[in-house]
Amino acid sequence: MSNYEIVNTFIALIAICISFTAIVRTRKLSEKQLALEKKNSMLSALAVLVSEYKSEAESIRVALSDGTIKIENLSRVGMENALSGVLDKQYKAIEDIEKILISHQITKT
Questions:
Q1: CA distances (Å), 63 to each of 71, 79, 84, 87, in order?
Q2: For 16-62, what is each residue's pLDDT tens digit?
Q3: DSSP string, 2-54
Q4: Three-state secondary-structure class, residue 107
C-alpha cells in the first residue's frame, strides 16, 4: 500500500469513529430528552390540578362566608369537610410536584 492509501484508510476510520460516537451521544441525549418531556407533562398536569383545587377551595370558602350555605340549604359541616378534602388533594398534588422536582435534581447531579 502506498502512503496515499494508508492516509485515506486512516481518515475513513477516523470518520467512522466520529460518526459512531455522534450516533451514540444522540441516542443518549434523546433518551434524556424523552424522560424530561415526560416529567414536564406530569408537572403541567399537576399544576393544572393544583390550580383547579385552589379555585374549588376558594369557591367553597366563599360559600361558607357569604351565606350561600343557608340559601342553598347545605350543611356547614359537609361544606367544611369538602373544603378539607379539596385542600388535602391540593397538598397531595403539590407533594407530587416536589417529588418530581427532587428526583430531577438527584438525577441531574
A1: 10, 8, 14, 15
A2: 999 999 999 999 999 989 988 998 998 999 999 999 989 988 988 88
A3: -HHHHHHHHHHHHHHHHHHHHHHHHHHHHHHHHHHHHHHHHHHHHHHHHHHHH
A4: helix
